[in-house]
Amino acid sequence: MEIPFIHSLHRPLNKPLKCTRWVCEFLVSQDDIKSSMINLEFFYYLVKKLHKTYSTYVPDEYHGIPSKGAIDAIFTYIQSVSKSDLSQNITSILQNKKRVGIEKQIYSVYKASSYFVNLAKDKFKLIDEKNNLTTNGKNLLEIKTGSKFSLSTKEKEFYFERVLECDFLIFITHCSFENIQIKYDLRDATEYQYLFMEKFYSISHFNFTTPSLENYNTVRSYWIDTLDVLNKNKKLRTKYLNIIKSDENFFKWYEEILENIKNFENTTFKKNLKYLKLKKLFVVEYDKFVKNQTEDLGFVNLHDLKLHLHISFENFQIFLNQFYEEEKRNSKIFFSNIVNSVDRRQRFYVNKIPVLKIKIKK
After folding, report:
1. pTM value?
2. What is the pLDDT of residue 204?
3. In sequence order, what are the residues at sequence separation of 6 or more whose Cβ sits closer than 8 angstroms to the Cβ of residue 166?
């Protein structure tokens, strides 16, 4: 059995875990509902629920939950029209690409409500195909909940298990790389996590770029913080480690990931640490040159870049070839050997072709 992972997450609409409880509570309140109507009906339910909540409490930050301003405006609008007219109006708003005023707010909240349903149904499996609560969905509603938007201790443990069931590979990997980040005093370990996923789990079809992985990790980081998964040293808290150990598959996957991370740390990571730091400086200096130039159409002289990196010609040559091979899948990289005046400086070679300038199109 392959270690499961979620292929994509919406930032920020997949952040609030508690919204999946609201979906379950909504379904319990319904006698029967068609799949084609669940998003629309939950949209009405969500607006009314949040309007009532916001009348006594407003959070400092929403983290994917519709804002009080949007909810109040939509609630007032809903009260002013019949439900049949409202359904037609919302269908029209969803189909119309040009939205103004209240239409934008309705579309935004409807989109959020549909993502909440998706998180509960497709990712956490709290709802089955017939829109009935699964055993886990029923178990969730039996747990005493936290007030307003918070989670109780038992809810946190419940959601931790649901996250592991659908996203064990990347969630636990992300937790491990948070530890690596503080261990090596890195500003961001996302790129190393990307290399790890590609090397040990061949996630090339995931089509990760660093920005998209950062977006997905924004959601996972919020889950980690919300559930209080890691201690101050960025290691799994004992109670969560015990949950992993209590499940045969979880523990097997956990040991595999830790062994692979240890391997990665001792080989690929240490080897690439120097390269990745050099790459970051290289890109920063390249962007500075492009920003300040008045001509040359984005091409920057490689000797100028080498000078700012403070490395030898030979080491820069090695770096340049590695940079091209590893970055060409994410960016368009162009080289040129054409100069406006005679430049007798030694050429660099990329794939055995002499080059003097570089242009990067992201």
Report:
1. 0.79
2. 61
3. 4, 5, 6, 123, 124, 125
